[in-house]
Amino acid sequence: MTNSARSTIGGVPPEETFAKISNFQPHHTGTNDLDATEKTTRPSVAELITQKADALTASERKLAQALLSHYPMAGLETVATFAERCGVSAPTVLRFAGKLGFESYPEMQSRLRGELEARLQSPLTRSALPRAAVAASGHPMGELLHHMTDAITSNIRSSLSNIAPTELEGAVNLLADRKRAVYVLGGRFSSALAVYAYEHLRSMRGNVRRVSGQNTKWTEDLLDIGKRDVLLVFDVRRYQHDVITFAETASNQGAKVILFTDQWLSPIARFARHVFPVRIETATTWDSAAASMALLETLLEGVGRADPDHVRDRIEHLERLRRRPPGG
Q: Which of 14, 21, 74, 195 has the fewest beta carbons closer than 10 A?
């Protein structure tokens, strides 16, 4: 493998990124042209790689590692450039694309370009997506309720069923380790998940800090983050540069990063210790946080079960403090 293919970001080599993401095996829906609703569940190239991971040759795994470590841009290079980056032959690149189910390398690149566009979609863009026709006998709000129920439950079922238990266990162990400080950070919309995680974690254990306020103040949190600490970060499409920069800096300072992201993978995945990709699309104006919340609640329950006696004592103490009369 060439030096460029062996490069690391935040101290995590590409093969570790490949191993982490390979634990996520989403539902396969095919690669034919689909309507707008079906396209929301069509697998990304990263997801296809996880599905085919066991069938890849050593040379093809080099391509997979490089692509996942620099996703999706590495796959938009020419065949020759991509092959040279990974130290393999051009025919190997073509076989790699075929093994993922594409008829040609340009077809794979077309999918990647579509994913790159999806990463950058705004609510305004998504509001122009075609909607399913309302049944003549149905109420528009009834149709909306039916659509959202199907979309959200599908996202939750697909996301949670494809999380590797060992990956969840690793994240739980980090968050439950009271010798480690835990920092929690989210973006513009995902900060709601960060607040939820922070409030629950601080009820179960001490030394939990939420990174909040103006991003110019975040450097004060970075000042204290070290190799014994954990960063739980939430970053979904239209990934925030300030969140990515914070996570990378924390990783460079030795912190263990736990990432909640979407199926297109935030750039933070390159240097995160544990990565949890979940489905967020509903073929509507807004992305859904339902699957992320369901997985987060699963993670928090795991933390509570990791040290139940301490958690129970801490919550009982908290309840006594809340019942104490003013000045008592």
A: 195
Q: What six digits make up the tokens of 117?
A: 């566009």
Amino acid (1-letter code) at residue 30 = G
Q: Which CATH number fits domain 10-122: 3.40.50.720, 3.90.950.10, 3.30.70.980, 1.10.10.10?
A: 1.10.10.10
Q: What is the DSSP-derived secondary structure letter of residue 9? A: B
pLDDT at 247: 97
Task: Sketch the domain layout of the chain as residue ranges.
Answer: 10-122, 164-323
What are 327's two structure tokens? 């000045």
As a dihedral over the C-alpha atoms of residue 298, residue 300, residue 301, residue 307, rounded to 10 degrees, the angle is 140
The values of phi and psi at residue 141, to 5°, are: -70, -30
Cα–Cα distances in Å, from 173 out to 98, 204, 262, 302?
Answer: 39, 14, 23, 9
Q: What is the dihedral of CA 303, 309, 312, 318, to 10 degrees?
A: -100
- CA angle at residue 239 from 35 to 93, to 5 degrees? 65
Q: Is the pLDDT of residue 78 over 80?
A: yes
- The SS3 call for residue 23 is coil
Q: Facing residues of 186 across strands? A: 234
Taking residues 293-316, report their average pLDDT.
97
164-323 in CATH: which number?
A: 3.40.50.10490
Residues 6+ away with beta carbon under 8 Å from 198: 184, 208, 210
Instruction: Name beta bridge partners: 125.
Output: none
What contacts 192, CB < 8 A, 6 or more positions away? 186, 289
Contact 25, 51 (CB under 8 A): yes
Within 8 A by CB and 6+ apart from 96, the residues are 56, 60, 63, 64
Q: Pairing state of beta strands 256-262 and 230-234?
A: parallel
CA gap 229, 172 in Å, rounded:
14
pTM > 0.90: no
